[in-house]
Structures are given as structure tokens and as C-alpha cells.
Amino acid sequence: MYLVFTTNYFPWLTIVVVLPIFFGSLLFFLPHKGNKVIRWYTTFICFLELLMITYPFCYHFELDDPLIQLTEDYKWIHFLNFYWRLGIDGLSIGPILLTGFITTLATLAAWPVTQNSRLFHFLMLTMYSGQIGSFSSRDLLLFFLMWEFELIPVYLLLSMWGGKKRLYSATKFILYTAGSSIFLLMGVLGIGLYGSNEPTFNFETSANQSYPIALEIIFYIGFLIVFAVKSPIIPLHTWLPDTHGEAHYSTCMLLAGILLKMGAYGLVRINMELLPYAHSLFSPWLIIVGIIQIIYAASTSPGQRNLKKRIAYSSVSHMGFIIIGIGSISDAGLNGSILQIISHGFIGTGLFFLAGTGYDRIRLVYLDDMGGMAIPIPKIFTTFSIFSMASLALPGMSGFVAELIVFFGIITSQKYLLMTKILILFVMAIGMILTPIYLLSMLRQMFYGYKLFNVQNFSFFDSGPRELFVSISILLPIIGIGIYPDFVLSLSVDKVEAILANYFYR
Questions:
Q1: For this chain's UniProt record, which GO biological process terms are given (predicted)?
Q2: For labelling, which of 215, 249, 256, 453 has a CA lying 20 to 30 Å from the CA of 350?
Q3: CA distances (Å), origin 267, targets 187, 320, 428
């Protein structure tokens, strides 16, 4: 028994995927009906899951091995030749750890939720299982099932615990995401059935498969539509501001921290790794779209009066750097994209959490109605300012390092001419100049002036211990990665070299 628990034979990943939804379903059987027991139970499950994720990665994962580790392969449905295949590598370990960390903090942030809290916390734990399953799947059909699995919880969280237009935003979300999933299913079945009498959905088999040029391009476009919706990439981004504007802030934390990153992960895992020739053809277009996205979203954000919609457009802008890094086809560019996935996961989560804590106090969402909040709530003002500085890529924070490495990725790319690189960097710099404009104006409208401070009989209370704990827990990795980015880069550098070998050495 000792050997089973201390070697790779123990099914760590299966337990990690199943544990949240299994124990989450027990919420409905708890005899106590109080919200306090439900909150503590859910927090305990999330913390236990985080420990279950961290332990095998610390003791059984080899950083210098680019191959799949902790693999599990069980035949699930014999008739369909369908396998339960799980495994992790340097590309998936970062998003999985991010998922565990962010979901645990999101459950702490959701403590003020009292309406039907059993269902709320069960849906959060169901999302947890679906997201871990997506990042650890080594079977294309299983990846599709896990991708779909977390859509229903998000839809219910939006439609039941959102703002006044929650049904509109939830419907828009499900139409975009479920509609695009048709392309994912078609692509998965196309790759699985190509060149074989029996369907083979194994990632390793598909990575070594070659396709006719026209077919590979068709597969690539189909997968690109799916991941462009989830990332989001313009013009398929319009569901995001509406969703963030109406969702409860703990749901926004999961959306900004994890859900958007699933799209970027899919671009690397499927488009880049399985379809290298098509990716080399489309990479210049990805860079063009990424540049347009940075400038468009940064230009649109100042016009948003809703605080959460302004932060949502900042997320769209920062996702442009991930797309550019993926399109650069260089070591630095792809490593910078992976670092930006982790970095923006923390920064976006922190901004939405603080926006939500502010709403809990003043019940206002429009910036025109705010002002003068710095004096009565100095802790929220301080933490909000720090996260805003991290978002505008202040040196010493994770956002600065990630965007700088993406810049180096463009400079060192072997695919583009020197003048093209200079033009790309110039336009990216314009987008980075626009970022402080909307973030600093947001801080000015919220915290400076005297509007709310002069209102009669208006009382404030500052961050409590729980809120401070969540804010500091998100802030520490941002500063840690900014000071020592190798903490994240060491996870992915060997896997990145293995992926790029398809482009330069075959």
C-alpha cells in the first residue's frame, strides 16, 4: 500500500478530477440547513483538492521531462473504443495549479451568497472538476466532454446569481460557447476517424499524424473558432463584457482566472501541437488579430461606464499578448504566452474580486455614480491600486515580465523580417500606452473626489480579515512571479522546446 501511494501507479489525476463533483454532490445530503456549514464544507473540499493537486506535482513530476507524466489509461466504453486517458506535462501543470488556487479563493469570496447556497457551491465544485479534467485530458473525445461539462454550471451561475440582465447575458454565453462546440466535436471526430477503421482519439497518436494540407487547414479553422470564442478573440468576444457585467463576482473570478485560459490552452495544445503546418500558415494572422485586439479593447475600455465591463475589456486586451506569443513561433514568445496565462489569471481574478467587494458596500456598478471612496475604505483603495498597477505592467509585477518576454519572442522569432518585427512592436507599444489611460481613469473615478464621501448618512466598512486574506493570497504570486519568473517558466520550458521542434527540426 505504501508503494502504491508513493509511486506513479496511484490514480492521482482521476481522484483530482472526480473529488470536487463527488463531494459537491454530498452538499445536498447535509442535514444542517445553515449557510455557514455549507460554506465551510465547500472551502474544506477546495483546500483538500488543492493539496491533492500540489502533492503529486511536487513529489512525482519531473520538470526536465517534456513527455506526459502521471499517465492513466482505462478503457471506458468498449463499443466506442473510448478511453479515460489522463496525464500532465509542462504545458498543463501551470493551468491546473492555477485552477486549484483560484477556485479555492473564489469559494472564500462567495461567502456573502445566501440565496440557494447549496446549489451555488455545488456548481462551483462541478466547474472545478470540469476545468481540471480539460487541462489533464490526453484523449480528444474526453477533452470535448470535459470542455462541455463546465458550460452548464457557468450558465446556471450566471442566470440565477447575476444582475438585472443576467438571463440575457447567460443566454448569450451559452449560444456562443455551445454553438462553437459543434466545431470542436466535428474537429475531434475528424481527427479521430482520419486514416483508420477504428476511431483513435489519443493525443500522442494524433500528434504524430500527418494530414493533407487542405484538410489540416479545415481542422485548424474549426478549432480556432472554438478557442477564439473561449479566449476570447475578436470579433467573437462580445459575450464576455455582458457576462462579466452581470455575473456575481466570485463567478467572474472563475471566468477571468480560468475559463478564458482554457481557450489559450486549447490553441497551444491542439492547434499548435497537433496541426503544426496549418499553424505556421495562420501565425501571421494570429499576430495581426492579437495587435488589433490589444488596441481595440484598450480603446473601448475607457468608454465603459460599468466597472466590471471596463475590467472585462482590459482582459480582452491582455489576452492579445497571449495570441501574439502563440503566433510568434519562438521559445520566448510561447513561454511568454504561458506566463501571461498564469499572470493574467491572478491579476484578472484580483480586479474582479475587489470590484465585487466594492459593490457589496455601495451597491453601485456605474463609475459615473462613484467617487471619494479612498478615504472611507483605504484597504480596498490600496489593494485595488496595486492590482491596477500590476495590470498596466508595472516592473516588479508578473504582468511586466510576461509582456516583456512576449516582446522578446517577437524580436527573436525566425519567421518574420526585421521591418515586420519593428512594426509589430511599435503597434504593441501603442496598446501598452493606452492601458494606463483606462486603468488610472478608473481609479480616479472610483476613489478620488468627494461624491460619495459627502453623502449624508452613508456608512462604509473596510475589508475584513476574509477579504484581506483573499486579496493578499492573489497578490503574493503576482509579486513572486514578477521577481522570480523562473518559478513558472521552469515548468514549461522543456515542453515548449518539444512543441517547437515540430516547426524547425522535422
A1: ATP synthesis coupled electron transport; electron transport coupled proton transport
A2: 453
A3: 13, 13, 21
